[in-house]
Design goal:
Blueprint: H1 7-20, H2 43-70, E1 79-82, H3 88-95, E2 99-102, H4 108-115, E3 120-123, H5 131-137, E4 143-146, H6 156-161, E5 165-168, H7 174-189, H8 192-200, E6 218-222, H9 226-237, E7 241-245, H10 251-256, E8 260-261, H11 264-270, E9 273-276, H12 290-294, E10 300-304, H13 313-322, E11 325-330, H14 343-346, E12 350-352, H15 361-379, H16 395-417, E13 419-420, E14 427-434, H17 444-455, H18 468-474, E15 478-485, E16 496-502, E17 505-506, E18 518-525, E19 528-534, E20 537-542, E21 546-553, H19 558-568, E22 573-580, E23 586-593, H20 599-607, E24 611-618
Parallel strand pairs: 1-2, 1-3, 3-4, 4-5, 6-7, 6-9, 7-8, 9-10, 10-11, 11-12, 14-15
Antiparallel strand pairs: 13-17, 14-16, 16-18, 18-19, 19-20, 21-23, 21-24, 22-23
Subcellular location: Plastid, Chloroplast
GO molecular function: NAD binding; phosphoglycerate dehydrogenase activity
Catalytic activity: (2R)-3-phosphoglycerate + NAD(+) = 3-phosphooxypyruvate + NADH + H(+)
Length: 619
């Protein structure tokens, strides 16, 4: 008697068949691309790896069910390795589904030795899941679960190559982190930690530890996501005036709890307290440095329960010594644990805790349940909204869309860097021009990559086809699409992609259309993404390296003047392009550079009389 496939087995079979159907775009797959064309050479082997992994899942599911139905000896349940402590509620859920191996404090060698016997791995922040781990798994491991938010200890590229899904638990510790932020704020304001240590040393120094009141003081919440908004609610309850900076926070959501959204400069320049809740990204790395401290009110107090790397710790020590920063309360550090002789940790005006933001019994249980549900769901063939990577697209689809995928992400990254002001990004429109019938053009992957480009540079969210729409919705970001049929060859899927960010201010006014929206447009030429329009201005530049956009009076000699300034500063120019709307009126000069010019160089460019505005953009 033939066995009947289980429901989740049937679901997975259908996904595999859809991914091999050349006439249907896959609704499952996604690939983290890079701007390096050579990366596409690996696609076939990666796809084969993923397909074989799913096949193993199917075989295991079918055999297990068959033996249950026919009285055979059951095959072992899936094995889940838990390498760091997890709440009992989560472990109970896992044990109801799989065999669970709780082996803590494994060395890298021990982890590699065990992993080939496991179908899933659950870690916190202490276990490094490297490429060597995935290689040692020999294709068996199907999902890695990170019990928490950050996934910088997991090699996502390797996980994707080996067909392994990575999921995290981003919501369960929100309240715990917010409460710890408030605890640090209040204890810092009243010198609780210092007074406690003093009394335990046998002293009674009432006059030394006079604090400051919170009522009527302004606190700037830097990052108005889940944790930041909860901190804001609690600060309002303490009678504080709350302002916030977050380029994605909807203004109406902030207003609903009495919070004013402002620019970065206004936030740091007016606050009495600054509470950090931003992710660590290339854009936020050491964003609080000597320059930003110099712009703050003298006597400001800083709280950080986000990521240590957003603060230049040496600069913070200097700001504390000079009195610009009166006090700091820190739960996170660039290196954890910090050195025992750290000047920052030992500073008398600094209150520190050892990364306790999520360390409440309730939060630990919540994280355990959230990650257990995500891992079990993944092993059952379900795709979670908390997935931080996803399986690859079929080779034939990716080969066609590959350069457009890169173009879409880079247009998103460029567009978001042009936004300024405190109103936040709420609406994005993506316009595709194509000769193909809409039914023959699946734009979900392209839309996901535009979303990825817009959100990832200033967020710790990893965007993929699985979670793109969910992540945008969570951030209050509406992504709409429009398709325009043009008279060109249907051989190519897309003629051009235009990204518009609506109802925002721009740090480069020339990128605005008449309706006030930021607009940039690009095409793929000879397999390479190009920027072809900025606002109403036509340009033609390869989207490689970094970019300087200058609006100038259209007159002779401008390329030479700006080029000489860059050359004198040893900034290598890779290309230049000039576009204009009307002859001898205004023009846009787009300059490709290999490195970011220093402040003096930018100042010299801005001082050229014919240059009306310019902006540096990282690609």
């Amino acid at each position: 008697m033939a066995s009947t496939p289980s429901p989740h087995t049937t679901h997975l079979h259908s996904l595999i068949s859809s991914s091999t159907n050349h006439n249907k775009p896959s609704n499952l797959s996604f690939f983290h691309t890079s701007s390096n064309p050579s990366s596409f050479k690996l696609i076939h082997s990666f796809s084969t790896s993923f397909s074989s992994t799913i096949s193993n899942v199917l075989k295991t599911a079918d055999i297990s069910l068959s033996r249950d139905l026919n009285g055979f000896v059951s095959t072992p349940k899936p094995t889940i390795l838990v390498s760091e402590k997890l709440g009992e509620a989560g472990l109970d859920l896992l044990r109801s589904f799989a065999d669970v191996d709780c082996s803590y404090d494994l060395s890298p060698q021990d982890l590699c030795a065990k992993i080939s016997l496991c179908d899933a791995l659950i870690v916190r922040s202490g276990t490094k899941v490297t490429r060597e781990v995935f290689e040692a798994a020999q294709g068996r491991i199907k999902v890695v679960g990170r019990a928490g938010v950050g996934i910088d200890n997991v090699d996502l590229q390797a996980a994707t190559e080996f067909g392994c899904l990575v999921v995290n638990a981003p919501t369960a510790n929100t309240i715990a982190a917010a409460e710890h932020g408030i605890a640090l704020l209040t204890s810092m304001a009243r010198n609780v930690a210092q007074a406690d240590a003093s009394m335990k040393a046998g002293k009674w120094l009432r006059s030394k530890y006079v604090g400051v009141s919170l009522v009527g003081k302004t606190v700037a919440v830097m990052g108005f996501g889940k944790v930041g908004s909860e901190v804001a609610r609690r600060a309002k309850g303490l009678g504080m005036h709350v302002i916030a900076h977050d380029p994605y926070a909807p203004a109406d959501r902030a207003r609903a709890i009495g919070v004013d959204l402002v620019s970065f400069e206004q936030a740091i320049g007016t606050a009495d307290f600054i509470s950090l809740h931003m992710p660590l990204t290339p854009a936020t790395n050491k964003v609080f440095n000597d320059d930003t401290f110099a712009k703050m009110k003298k006597g400001v107090r800083i709280i950080n329960v986000a990521r240590g790397g957003v603060i230049d710790e040496d600069a913070l020590v200097r700001a504390l010594d000079s009195g610009i920063v009166a006090q700091a309360a820190l739960d996170v550090f660039t290196v954890e644990p910090p050195p025992k002789d750290s000047k920052l940790v030992q500073h008398e005006n600094v209150t520190v805790t050892p990364h306790l933001g999520a360390s409440t019994k309730e939060a630990q249980e919540g994280v355990a349940i959230e990650i257990a549900e995500a891992v079990v769901g993944a092993l059952n063939g379900e795709l979670s909204a908390t997935a931080v990577n996803a399986p690859m697209v079929p080779p034939e689809v990716l080969f066609e869309l590959a350069p457009y995928v890169v173009l879409a992400e880079k247009l998103g990254r460029l567009a978001v860097q042009l936004v300024t002001g405190g109103s936040g990004i709420q609406s994005v429109k993506v316009v595709y021009k194509s000769a193909r019938d809409p039914d023959r053009l699946d734009t979900r992957l392209l839309r996901a990559m535009v979303t990825k480009g817009i959100i990832e540079p200033i967020s710790d969210t990893i965007i993929n086809l699985v979670n793109a729409d969910f992540s945008a919705k969570q951030k209050g970001l509406r992504i709409s699409e429009e398709r325009i049929i043009v008279d060109s060859s249907p051989e190519y899927p897309v003629e051009s992609i235009q990204v518009q960010i609506c109802n925002v201010q721009s740090k480069f006014a020339s990128a605005l259309l008449e309706n006030g929206d930021i607009s940039i447009e690009g095409k793929v030429k000879y397999g390479i993404p190009h920027l072809t329009r900025v606002g109403p201005f036509s340009v033609d530049v390869s989207l490689e390296g970094n970019l300087i956009l200058c609006k100038q009076v259209d007159q002779p000699g401008m390329i030479g003047k700006v080029g000489n300034i860059l050359g004198e500063s040893n900034v290598n120019v890779s290309f230049m392009s000039v576009g204009r709307t009307v002859k001898r009126k205004h023009a846009i000069m787009a300059i490709g550079v290999e490195e970011e010019p220093d402040k003096d160089t930018k100042k010299k460019i801005g001082e050229v009389s014919a240059v009306e505005e310019f902006v540096f953009l990282k690609l």
